[in-house]
Amino acid sequence: MAFQGSLKELPLPDVIQLVAVSGKTGAFWIEDRGERGKIYLREGRIVHAETDTLVGEEAVYELATWTEAEFRFDPDDPPSRSTIERSNTSLLIEAARRTDEWRILAKRVGSTKMVPVRREDDPPRGVSLTPREQRVMQQIDGRSSIEAIAGKLDDSAFEVAKIVYDLINSGVVRLEEKGAA
How many angstroms separate the CA atoms of 40 and 140, rounded? Predict the structure, then answer.
C-alpha cells in the first residue's frame, strides 16, 4: 500500500495511526523545507525513527512538529534496526503534547536552528536563573544553535528550546539566524 500526502491536511500522529492500525511494515519518509526524516514500522509498531540529527524517540517528537511536510509510506523499506521500545500510544501522546507545546514556543523561538545570543546586561538586574538556565547560559557563545547547545548538554533540542524561551522572556538572551552574528 503506497500512501502519501501533506501534513498540512492531517497531523503526523494521525497519519501513522492510520497505517499502524493495519499492521503494516515499512517506512514513512517525511520532508519539510529540505529537512528529511524517517519513521519505521514493523507490523504496525513504531520501532525506529531518524532525522539528520536525531535518532529514536526524539526523532519522532521532532518529526511530529513538522506541519508543512510532505510524507509517503513505503512498504518496501523495512526497518533495519530498532531504537524505540515505547508503545505507539505512549509515543504518539507524547508527540502530540510536545507539538501543542511547540506551537507556543515557536512564537518566540521559531526554530531549533536559531542561535541564542546573550544580551549586554547579563543577567538583567532582578533576574535570577535556575540551575538548568545557568547550564544553558554557559553554552551560549553567539555561534551555537539551540540544536548544537542541546548536543553539548546531551539534552533534547526541545527541552533546550523551552529553556531558551524562558531566557528570552526574562530578557537574558535574544535569537539570531545562524551565521548572522
Answer: 35
